[in-house]
Amino acid sequence: VSLMLLTLSYVIIAGNEQPKHNNAITTDELAKDLKSSDWGKKRSALNLLLQRTDEQSTRNALMQELRAEYERGEQWWRRNGEEVKKGRTPGEQLEGWGESLNSILEAVAAFPDADAPSVLVPFCLYSKKARDRVVSSGEPIIGDVLGCLEKSNNQDSLCGVAMVVKEMASKQNISASNKARLRKVLGSRLSSEVGFERVYFIRALALVGDQTSAQLLETVAAQDAYTVKNPQTTKISYPVREEANKAIEEIREREK
């Protein structure tokens, strides 16, 4: 009998020490865990939150996490951007979610919330669903796009936003006044020290540029020094110059 009572007492105590059932964990608790520096805890919280996206508090938590991730990325690029531009890989790697981040992006892209597109803007290179949601937002999102182009240090964010401009312009989703604003910012970004960034900016400028843009691109087409060497043939190509020439031709054909 004593042994049975001892065993029963152990079962009761052990049962009381069991972690909460998933359904017993509040959304606020999960939102708090999502901010943890423990990536395992963050992922566990995310997996549960993704099952509750019908709740406004869940959607707010996931969108806030994207804002925090954007700031983490910007801080990383401010610390390491110069090393990357020199072709070196910093020892410190960009803290990211990988597949988990993509899960958040795809979830937020489907949210009905009016502010969802603005938090997706810096991540458009990573997720086509995120990019499609931003592009489909049309004119109201241009302010966020311009803000990212003007202020971001993150190469991935800048290239993704340039893709958005190109896709929006191809769908005629940009007014003449906003095209003028975009031309100015994209033109200033052609002085970027990163060759592949310039390729993305030129592709966007090809869709929103005017004759003044074409004149600017003539200098790029003649002087840009970015080269890529084919490892098989050892042939040297000039991707930025090539894109600039294509853009000039496209702009002048459209401006006839």
Could you walk me through the main structural features you see in this protein, from its secondary elements to its overall organization?
- By secondary structure, this protein is mainly α.
- Helix content is 67%, strand content 2%.
- The protein has helices at residues 2-16, 27-34, 39-49, 56-85, 99-109, 116-120, 128-136, 142-151, 155-170, 176-189, 195-208, 211-223, 239-254, and strands at residues 228-229, 236-237.
- A two-stranded antiparallel ribbon has the order 1-2.
- The longest helix is centred in the first third of the chain and has 30 residues, at 56-85.
- The radius of gyration is 24 Å and the shape is globular.
Largest sheet: 2 strands, antiparallel
Distance between the amino and carboxyl termini: 99 Å
**Order of H and E elements:** HHHHHHHHHHHHEEH
Q: Which percent range describes the beta-strand content? A: under 5%
What is the β-strand count?
Answer: 2
- Helix and strand composition category: mainly alpha
Helix residue percentage: 55-70%
- Strand arrangement, major sheet: 1-2
Ranges with pLDDT <50 over ≥5 residues?
1-18, 92-96
Which shape, going by the Cα principal axes? Answer: globular
Number of helices: 13
Mean pLDDT: 87
Rg, rounded, reads 24 Å
